[in-house]
Write a structure and sequence with these properties.
The protein has 127 residues and is mainly alpha-helical. 75% of the residues lie in helices and 0% in strands. The model has no long low-confidence stretch (mean pLDDT 82).
Amino acid sequence: MANNATTVRVTADASGYTAEIDKARKSADAFMQTQAAAAERVRVAQQAIAEAAQNGSNASARAINNFVSQLQRTADQAGKTRAELLQMRAAQLGIADSVSSYVRQIDEASKHTHEFTLNSKRPAKSP
């Protein structure tokens, strides 16, 4: 009687799997940071609303929330370059990896523009 058993061996490169796990980890980290920032903004807004009520302010909760959100965005953006702001926004949208090459191009162009500005402000050497 003939043996009809078949053996199949499968091997795979785990680098793609590892890359996807790393991507998921980055996404989860960004999500947790976003949630922590949102919780902090809510805490600050609630504190501001309570303070406004205690001081007899007529400001609405909506106006206070809008102001707190605007302050948070301004604080998050303070001191950042254009490329850093774009990377931050891309991370918030969950597309940081997809657009990183574009952000890098913008960053490189900004560096060259900055060098040009610095060089043009130097006084010319006299002959």
